[in-house]
Design brief:
The radius of gyration is 18 Å and the shape is globular. It has helices spanning 2-22, 37-51, 71-79, 94-99, 131-151, and strands at 25-31, 56-62, 102-106, 117-120. The chain has 5 helices and 4 strands. Helix content is 47%, strand content 15%. The chain has one domain (24-151): Rossmann fold (3-Layer(aba) Sandwich), CATH 3.40.50.2300. Strands 2-1-3-4 form a 4-stranded parallel sheet. The longest helix has 21 residues, at 2-22. One of its GO terms (biological process) is response to arsenic-containing substance. This is Phosphotyrosine protein phosphatase I domain-containing protein. Keywords: Arsenical resistance. Residues 25-148 form the Phosphotyrosine protein phosphatase I domain.
Length: 152
């Protein structure tokens, strides 16, 4: 009887511990159209966060979202090994901002934010002019962010 009670307590504790630890913190990347810079940042952030076992995930949003990712973004991310088949820009909402651990914007502003931290990555080169240059700048920012999060 006591063994069953102890076993039950351990099972409940394990379930609770797993649920507590499994809820990852969210990073929201926002650019004007949600179709180029923020999806690239999201792709690289999620890849690196997973590789470094960080309890974070990212989503991309737009302040004035396009109906789809730009062709340059789709082609570039495909060459880089990312599958964007079901990716679609979405409008950033107050809910996105409020539940985010960090909101990172690319040359745009979002409604007054209550995220833990607001970061601006302004001046990123245009994806349509040169995907590789823009991607490298974004990836460098993401790598720096990952290093910072690893220390938290």
């Amino acid at each position: 009887m006591i063994k069953n009670i102890i076993l039950s307590i351990l099972v409940i504790y394990t379930i609770f511990a797993c649920e507590t630890n499994s809820k990852s913190k969210e990073i929201v990347f926002v650019c004007t159209h949600g179709a180029a810079r923020s999806p690239i940042a999201t792709a690289y952030f999620n890849k690196l966060a997973k590789e470094h076992n960080l309890n974070y995930h990212a989503v991309f949003r737009g302040t004035e979202p396009d109906s789809s990712l730009t062709q340059e973004t789709v082609n570039g991310l495909a060459i880089d090994g990312f599958d964007t088949k079901n990716w679609k820009p979405e409008k950033v909402t107050m809910n996105d901002i409020e539940k985010a651990n960090k909101v990172i914007t690319f040359d745009c502003s979002v409604p007054s934010a209550s995220a833990d931290e607001m970061i601006e990555w302004n001046g990123t080169p245009s994806i349509s002019k040169d995907y590789n240059i823009a991607r490298d700048v974004i990836k460098n920012h993401v790598e720096q962010l990952i290093e910072k999060l690893k220390k938290e």
